[in-house]
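Example 3.2
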Amino acid sequence: MAANGCGGGQAADGGEMDVHNTYRSPLAARYASPEMAFIFSDAHKFQTWRQLWLFLAEAEQKLGLPITDEQLEEMRANLHTIDYKMAADEEKRLRHDVMAHVHTFGRCCPKAAGIIHLGATSCYVGDNTDLITLKKAFDLLLPKLARVISRLADFAAEHAGLPTLGFTHFQPAQLTTVGKRCCLWIQDLCMDLARLARARDDLRFRGVKGTTGTQASFLQLFEGDHEKVEELDKMVTQKAGFRRAFIITGQTYTRKVDIEVLSVLASLGASVHKICTDIRLLANLKELEEPFEKQQIGSSAMPYKRNPMRCERCCSLARHLMTLVMDPLQTASVQWLERTLDDSANRRLCLAEAFLTADTILSTLQNVSEGLVVYPKVIERRIRQELPFMATENIIMAMVKAGGSRQDCHERIRVLSQEAAAVVKQEGGDNDLIARIQADPYFGPIHGQLEHLLDPSSFTGRAAQQVEKFLQEEVRPLLKPYEGQLAGKVELSL
């Protein structure tokens, strides 16, 4: 450890800790990206505290307070030299995390120690750091979501015209296309992308507000000069990378901000859960599968299984993400008057977990979307099983055009359809309705048209055209701001 107490990197108790002997969050240890895990790390938090103290001192100096360049240089030189052992000891002694780090920073900066945190309250570093962290976390999530949309858009374009059986109530309905179904997923994700971007842009800095938000301490520092206090708030806000700050706060920024942030993440979780559930259902039908590695084991007991474990992971974590919004909802509702501290421990958990979870499911879904496998022959076989029933109206219309009676034709097809349905349901056989129609002399006038009348592409309506229009007019423009961030594939280690 450095002699001046500015070393770092050790466990809080100063000793080496076996990670296998203590609980670690699976989100950080197993699932989330290193980049997102760092954003919510102690190192990032405490470095940001020091940066905010520097911003405050720089602005106070510029506005005339007696702070020297030497003091500022000392602070700049020690933004990252954090002695975590000393900070932990100080917090144990003082029972106050911010003051523990004020003392620890002051040990590194003896000349500047007296002006660190000048006029500020704990929420100056605590809340403003949270807002900086949320902004950076959004900046990491947004291109990840854009990449998922981009991959699914390519998939939808490739399969825009591939007919597949549509389902309502998970019962066979009319035909759609594989690409059109994928666009249902993309549309939800595009809504999420827009909401995430809006939530990110709506973030405001708490700024320099003092103990109960009145800025009284800063007004005293500047001897009643309201303009300088306003300018101080503005300068620090700009230094921190925000366009604007709250005009009104209590001791904290309103906790409704956390509701808005976790609400959009919960909505993303719902979208991902729906998408991955669809893929799991289609995997059961053997029409579509997520990537499956050559050495991957689906089941320890059943070697033939190809479990959709990536989509199952997404669903599992998405459920967790959707529930986390309940924390800030309840927290905001019980913030007494100017604030109460029962928000603190809760927010340490829910904010970090929400972003780490969202990060994990987006990385996993990108991996899934980059390796989706379609089985057209299976899809075609299922269509053949159901299409004869769907084609009956077309057959009736063709018979009417050939001079037949609609009522007579309807009754004959009704009888033949029920016979064919009995073969399927009671005997487990294939749908033989068309063979029955071909064998019935009554339908002789249209026997030559049956192949055309049963062409699956004639049952998909404007699905292919809708896919093309949707991708061109809505999806591609939405992805344009992320053009330089769409490259790269995701390889999952677990």
